[in-house]
């Protein structure tokens, strides 16, 4: 992972660290590694989303472990310096700065995070479509609804999950959402 961190420019690495800290503080539902990876690639750096996700997971583990152990900035940097001698200098500088500025704020949030191990719903988009024809059937005229759910898994990675439903399935889906809304109103 250290050689992949070396590829990431300091400003993008700092943004990744900031997003992870915000996620650990429950200010954002997760780290959008797909969007960040695309921006890094647009700047001319060759990195894939899998490698960036691994780096994000490592940093998330690093910051949450440091928060659990109430490490000071110097303790964290000393531990990193002795354990990971291959970590790039710019990465150590960013980690030092981010932890110095915002590290203490995640200690309390980390205690609450240990309880929740499920993902978090971020957004939902839907669209109505009609299948007109296919190579095996000339006239379908079959309406369907495509739903895309954006969720953040417990590690903070944001992903999209898409599925299609027939109109009767969508009506049942909608009815269940109305039931949830009415139950929530009574709480």
UniProtKB/TrEMBL annotation:
GO molecular function ontology, one term from the record: NF-kappaB binding
Domain COMM span(s) in chain numbering: 120-187
Pfam families linked to this entry: COMM_domain
InterPro entries from the UniProt entry: COMM (IPR017920), COMMD4/6/7/8 (IPR047155)
Known function: Scaffold protein in the commander complex that is essential for endosomal recycling of transmembrane cargos; the commander complex is composed of the CCC subcomplex and the retriever subcomplex. May modulate activity of cullin-RING E3 ubiquitin ligase (CRL) complexes. Down-regulates activation of NF-kappa-B. Inhibits TNF-induced NFKB1 activation.
Family statement drawn from the similarity comment of this UniProt entry: Belongs to the COMM domain-containing protein 6 family.
Protein name as annotated: COMM domain-containing protein 6
Organism of provenance: Manacus vitellinus (golden-collared manakin)
């Amino acid at each position: 992972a250290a050689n992949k961190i070396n590829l990431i420019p300091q400003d993008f690495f700092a943004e990744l660290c900031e997003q992870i800290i915000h996620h650990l503080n429950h200010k954002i539902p997760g780290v959008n590694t797909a969007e960040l990876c695309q921006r890094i690639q647009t700047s001319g750096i060759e990195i894939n989303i899998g490698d960036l996700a691994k780096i994000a997971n490592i940093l998330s583990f690093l910051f949450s472990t440091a928060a659990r152990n109430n490490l000071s900035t110097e303790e964290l940097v000393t531990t990193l310096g002795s354990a990971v001698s291959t970590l790039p200098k710019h990465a150590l500088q960013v980690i030092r700065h981010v932890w110095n500025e915002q590290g203490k704020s995640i200690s309390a949030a980390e205690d609450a995070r240990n309880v929740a191990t499920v993902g978090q719903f971020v957004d939902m988009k839907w669209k109505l479509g009609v299948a007109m024809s296919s190579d095996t059937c000339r006239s379908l005229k079959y309406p369907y609804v495509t739903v895309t759910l954006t969720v953040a898994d417990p590690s903070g990675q944001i992903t999209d999950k898409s599925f299609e439903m027939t109109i009767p399935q969508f009506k049942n889906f909608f009815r269940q959402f109305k039931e949830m809304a009415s139950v929530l109103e009574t709480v």
